[in-house]
Structure formats: C-alpha cells, structure tokens
Design a protein that fits this description.
Elements: E1 11-13, H1 19-27, E2 32-37, H2 42-57, E3 63-68, H3 73-78, E4 86-91, E5 94-100, H4 105-113, H5 121-130, H6 136-149, H7 155-166, H8 170-178, H9 182-185, H10 188-202, H11 209-218, H12 223-235, H13 239-252, H14 260-271, H15 275-289
Parallel strand pairs: 1-3, 2-3
Antiparallel strand pairs: 2-4, 4-5
Helix pairs in contact: 6-7, 7-8, 7-10, 8-10, 10-12, 10-14, 11-12, 12-13, 13-14, 13-15, 14-15
Amino acid sequence: MPELSPPASAVVDITPANFETGLLQPSLTQPVLVLFWTPRSEASISLGSALESITADYRGALTLARVDVDAQAQVAAMFGVRSIPTVILMREGQPADGFAGALPEAEIREMLGRHVPPPSIEEVAGDEAAKPAETPQQAIARLQQELAATPERAELKLDLAVAFMQAGNAQAAAAELDALPANLETDDRAKRVRAQLEFADALRDAPPMAELQARLARDANDHAARDLLGLRLLVDGQTEAALEQFLDILKADRNWNEGLARKRLIAAFLGIDDADLVATWRRRMSSLLF
C-alpha cells in the first residue's frame, strides 16, 4: 500500500491524541494546511507530495497536518469531510479556506497567497541554487526506484519519459509515453516529449549540420536542407535560430511539402517551455499566414 513520506519538521500526522497540540494550537499563531487523505487514492498521494514541497518552500511559516481518514475517521468526521482528498487551511483555530480534490500546484499557491505571504523569489532561488543539479541519469535511477515502490503512480512514468528524453534515449522515452493512462497523454510535458520524439525521428538519417549549411550556401531555396537544419538547431538547443529556419521556409513557400514549415513551428512551440518566446514567434508565424 503506498504511503506519503515520513513527516518532515513542518509536517505532522494528526491523531486524536495530538489533535490539539499538532493542529489547533499551532493554527493560533500561523496557518496550518490540513490534508485529509487515504493511501487507497493515487490523487491523495500525488497531492500530499505537492503539499509537502509547497510547505517546505515556506521554511517554517506554514505547517502541513496530514489526516489519514482510514486510520483517523474520528478526526475527519470532526471537519465534516465527505470527499478525498480534501484540504482545509486553518487560521486562528478556524477553517479559513480549502478545496476538495486535487488542484494544480499553481492554484494551491494562489489560494495560500490569500492568507500567508509567499516566500520571496530570492529565497526560493537561493534554495534551488544550493541544491546540486540532478543529471538525467540520476533522475532516471531515482524515478525507476520510486516506480518500483509505487507502480500505481502513473505521473512518475511521465517524469521518467522526460528524463529519458533529456538523456537522449528516445526509444525508452517513447515506451514510457505509450504506457501513460489517457488522462496524462494530454499533459503539456507529454506533448513536449512527443514533439521531441518527432524531431528525433525526422533526423534519424539526416546529414550533419555542416553539410546542411553547405547545401544552403549553394542554394538558399533548398527547403529540405533548411528544414533539417532547423531540426538540428532545435535539438541542439538553439531554439530561436531553429525557428528562424522554419519561418524562412514559410516566407518563401508557405505550401512547401504540404505546409510542413507551419507544422514544424507548431510542434516546436509545444516543446518550448517559455510562454513569452512562444507568443512572440506565434505572432510572427501568424503575420505570414493571415
């Protein structure tokens, strides 16, 4: 049976015995986030992990109190909890806010922001900078261990697909994507990896970058070479240079190869984790099409 991680310093598991000292009394001086969960619910496990991470960001200014409704039905009944998971924010001994079900992390943080000052960007950035960067190989090993322990956590398969793609193992990434449940297939990260797999497949037998550049030097209208050069630049992390290649094809012949340049741009946008950059290039593409 899956479990949440052991309590950290700002996390406490609530029972009738410590209800007063672990939940009510602390809420008189600072906000306490109460999670009603069950190990039978994957949504509970995922939400619990997210709340632990959010609580850690507040560095002692917020406490997470967890109530296992299977073991502590009496505590759950005191709050009138009817659906699992449920989250209640306690302030000054009284419920101040909350929600039922699993919300995206951004919405949880927004809700908390109405009641407790969020950690500063500088503080969060300092914490992140202090952590050693995890390599794709380390991420793969960690995620495989977590999946072995909790195979029902399908979201870990998506994390693993991302890690495999970052490590350059497209075949393994594709296998993890194919194993995802339907509700995760439309996740932005899944779309991003699918786009990256599409690019990797198109480059399987492509000439090296120097040869493609030489072809374009001889003939600027060699759209096939420009298309492959754009893909190579994109995979190499030279995002804007890559998008420029696709846009150049669109300028010269918007219908080339059944509108492939437009399709490349749209697929590239899915793989770019920068909303402002995508918005800029979408406008440039639209100015040529409409």
